[in-house]
Design brief:
The complex is a heterodimer. Chain A is mostly helical. Chain A is built from 14 helices and no strands. In chain A, helix 11 crosses helix 12. Chain A starts with 8 loop residues before the first helix and ends in a 13-residue tail after the last helix. Helices cover about 35% and strands about 30% of the residues of chain B. Chain B has a six-stranded mixed beta sheet, with helices on both faces. A four-stranded antiparallel beta sheet of chain B has the order 2-1-4-5, covered by helices on one side. In chain B, strands 12-13-11-14 form a four-stranded antiparallel beta sheet, with helices on one face. In chain B, strand 12 and strand 13 form a beta hairpin. The chains are: A mainly alpha, B alpha/beta. The complex binds adenosine-5'-triphosphate (ATP) and magnesium ion. Adenosine-5'-triphosphate binds next to strand 2 and helix 1 of chain B.
Amino acid sequence: MQRINFKNAVLYKDMMVRAKRSNMSILMFILNLLLSIVAVIIVLSLNLSLSSFQSPSGAILPWFFISVIIFESAMICLVVPPASAGSISGEREHQTLDVLLTTNMTPLEIILGKYFSCLIYIGLLLLSTLPMVSIVFIYGSISFIQILALYGTLAIVAMYLASFGIYFSTICKKSSTATILSYLAIWVLIFGTISITAIGSVIVMIRNDAMNYEIYTLHTARAWSRDPFFFLLYLNPAATVVDVVGRLIGFDFGSDVFGGMDYILYNLGDNIQKTNFFIKFWTPISIILQLAVTFSVLTAAAKILDPTTHKKAKSSGR
Amino acid sequence: MLEIKNLNKSFGRFKAVNNLSMTIGDGELFGFVGANGAGKTTTMKICVGLLAADSGEVIIDGQNTLSGGRALRNKVGYVPDFFGVYDNLTAIEYLQFFAGANGIWGSKSLPLCESLLELVNLKDKRDTQVDSLSRGMKQRLCLARALVHNPDILFLDEPASGLDPKARFELKEILRNLSGMGKTIVISSHILPELIEMCSSLGIISHGELKFNGSVEDAMLLSSGSITLEAVVTDATEKAALLIKETPSVVSCELVGNKFNIGFSGADEDITALMKKLIMNDIPLISFNKKVENVENIFINIMEGGNINAEN
Ligand SMILES: Nc1ncnc2c1ncn2[C@@H]1O[C@H](COP(=O)(O)OP(=O)(O)OP(=O)(O)O)[C@@H](O)[C@H]1O
Ligand SMILES: [Mg+2]
């Protein structure tokens, strides 16, 4: 294992450079502007429902929560690629990468410095929306713990997605290519996994049917867990967010679901086994898996960045 | 001491560095000369750990840096041929960043960086944005950056390219200064005259192979095996040609108009003898001179002369 110095010069430098650029405050302003529009719509509709029915609708509150979460998640998906994909390729484009690699910093330290400067940037953007989000949540009577759990999950999503941006930044010469590939990766993680799982389960179903096996319908939890593609969904950050949201506001939907994934699978069929380990512990399993992927992707990037590890020389810079 | 042993590096089928061996002594100002594409940058990148060699050794102070990994990293400083600077950083911030990257933080960092700026005559540019510095200033800043961890050996890849004569002069002064401080400096260039006046020893590389490794004096000696004499006559060219050609030290003789270009291999006394002989034989000689050996010729002579290794 390589030694890691926690006093990371790349982290300090990148944070300083990011802070000096004005686009961060502009971005914060735009985000909060958009969020305030969402907030106004929500508060207005809440007031409307209050005046017309004289009591807050139990079903409408969770939807406020959900709209804010969708907003924040979409923001992460949009902001992470440009914030992370320029990390290494940007140094390469500036012709400063070679010089950086001759310092005492190890490739892993450089990668981690870049990674955390990106995370801190995303974190600050997320935090900047906190006051606005709190206003909405106070109206919606959502507790501090719930906000904390939400932000924690979003942070993990950001950590997960940013690692791909860093990876593509390491393998691509141009930041623009790396940015496009990171968007693509996010798209594959969210929609690709769903499509593959859906197609896979249909194939499993048809095959079982044709072989005259005990017929599994798509709806049974056993069919899901027998289906190998099903496990791909653990890599889907959207599934994690859905599960967490379900846990936080599940009671509002009036069912005794464990989490959002349970709820979705429950609604897909009638035979769901709530005690199914894989579904019951969706959030922790997916978070552990995603953090493991994050770690592997970052270490792989550090390996690639190390000029002395691979024989096949990539022309650097020129 | 820096020792390179049997270094090989191929890009695909192309052999960029071919079994290159050379020795550079402590405190030496070493000129690493070769035409474009000869393999200078490749060799330097291998030495500073930016490129993996296919085979061979780079030994610094008795330790192989290629297998020793990053342990010797703080012994070498590197100024690449193409280098960038960051936007949004001032000169002093730029240096402090690299000080941090080399593990120098806190109260040690600022005085060190300021003294380095002074060393490269950039004190007045301390708070200037680095991307607005001129090329020569960036070059010097980059040199200061390479010195931040106080390395024993400095590798400079074509440091003088793109600099005006004044900037070159300043750079040379700084390099002499550093050399005086006991640092070993390896400078690559494709312009020999530039190096020869300040370097103590030379390595000449061509197509990935080392053609020469030794002191500047050795290089001069080697190449002056054959010199060119010019003799201008007003008449009697045929008689003169005969006289010249029969002289044993004459290698070649070529007549252009009234001027003889004589390839000559001999001592100064032989030149005097030839001149005397022409005059004694009533050749109307109006000019006779030894062509001042162009340093470029040394380079070309050595390149064409195959592998003349004057190492020890
Ligand atoms: N990354 C690479 N991939 C493929 N070929 C390369 C690579 N880097 C260098 N080469 C080739 O290796 C040879 C030596 O290149 P190198 O850059 O070492 O030359 P140089 O002596 O520094 O030349 P110059 O004076 O132009 O800087 C060249 O023919 C070049 O095309
Ligand atoms: Mg070069």
